[in-house]
């Protein structure tokens, strides 16, 4: 199967806008030198860093939207993410435009904060709206040498710019004055390495019924690549050594080996720094997981303010238990 991962392998709806990419690069180049000067007074986040991890189509975007909407966490919005080389400046602009604290005579009243009343919809992880959460991959790739397989071997770990990675996050945290939450699925295979970088961190591992997750990934391949035979998402390190004959076997392996890597990583992560969340249970009772997150952060010396004021539940996108789902269950069972 072809593994072409470039922009041209995307369907029209998901191709990058070259004009936008050029503008963003130009803007970031202008701001980066000033942003680097500001970094000198920061070292590492003082509050817990929240990293949402898990396989593709497991509910990580919903979790990020929920965390962002709660108001208890800073996060990389679609606006902030465009300042990936100067996120401290991006965070200041985000707050100036979105935080009601900085409004003057409703001059930005058409720009709304992301709240529990906002849309929780997304398109393969891409959210809509200036204030909605962004995956923030351009930021991550500044510091780590990731490719289609994001596992970092010893050489890549040594060359990673972890000092400035921590400085940038500390600078952003100082703007929001609350814990910073972002997607971390790009480091699913490097949890113990990232865990050692921060004094306080909480990894939230999203899991989903594997058969429904497989079905969702296959649909994502068709929408994003135009062909379910083409890969979509990050590859596990074992990929090249596996004898995978069908798209169904590929996505089963993608889920299985990603989960295995996270479970192994969690073996070396302290209990108060990890939380596993099943997507289906989260949809049924998100308030329960607010309490669990609050308890984990409390054990790290951070008191999450207030009580849960969000939705009582979300509609699961799993759908009915069809013959297709049943057949995917059988394929996934063969991975064990």
Automatic annotation (TrEMBL):
It comes from the Bacteria. InterPro entries: P-loop_NTPase. Pfam families: Sulfotransfer_3. This is Sulfotransferase.
